User: Which sequence fits this backbone?
């Protein structure tokens, strides 16, 4: 019996305004499970850049931890990113949400000159060099482009010209892609989908998440 790929899913908190987008995270996990694969969730054990009220979008004065908040999505079954052994996984998946550009890096503040959280940057470099399949949703491909753009990877965030131009200035190639599809860079083993950069419903997000996961599985089984 063929061994199915194992996924490491990296979370950046809980909630679209300051962490991982919940619909994207859950539909990705469901797609992994529905396609007969297993997963383990991870998150860096760091403080959030800011805490945002997801109802009002106002900044709160409280402090929260990315790992602790991510555990809400993972139902407590999550490990600190430092415990991730790259050799135990075939695919690394990054859901979107503002946490991708505020907790994993500070793109939301510094744009193209953003700094990437060292543990995330190291994971992406290690995964790429070990020929792991890397997947990202929504705004998260910006992070992938920042770290791996020097390798000429191709990604999508949908068709937002402003963000696409930044991605290309990072050295990556941007490909306009429909919300229901995934952009597949089979040379560099990178798969991306636009999710809520384009989606108008959770159904569209789920379809795109499934396309992403299926493409990642296909890359692994055919590599």
Assistant:
């Amino acid at each position: 019996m063929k061994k199915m790929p194992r996924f490491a899913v990296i979370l950046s908190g809980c909630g679209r305004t300051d962490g991982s987008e919940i619909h994207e995270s859950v539909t990705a996990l469901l797609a992994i499970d529905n396609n007969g694969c297993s997963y383990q969730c991870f998150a860096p054990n760091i403080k959030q850049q800011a805490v945002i009220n997801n109802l009002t979008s106002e900044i709160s004065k409280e402090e929260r931890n990315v790992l602790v908040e991510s555990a809400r999505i993972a139902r407590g079954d999550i490990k600190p990113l430092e415990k991730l052994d790259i050799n135990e996984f075939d695919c690394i998946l990054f859901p979107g949400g503002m946490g991708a550009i505020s907790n994993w890096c500070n793109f939301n503040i510094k744009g193209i000159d953003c700094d990437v959280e060292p543990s995330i940057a190291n994971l992406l470099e290690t995964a790429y060099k070990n020929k792991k399949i890397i997947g990202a949703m929504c705004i998260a491909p910006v992070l992938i482009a920042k770290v791996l753009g020097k390798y000429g990877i191709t990604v999508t965030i949908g068709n937002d010209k402003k963000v696409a131009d930044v991605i290309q200035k990072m050295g990556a190639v941007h490909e306009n892609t429909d919300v229901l599809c995934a952009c597949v860079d089979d040379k560099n083993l990178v798969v991306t989908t636009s999710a809520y950069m384009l989606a108008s419903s959770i159904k569209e997000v789920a379809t795109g998440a499934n396309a992403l996961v299926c493409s990642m599985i296909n890359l692994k089984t055919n590599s």
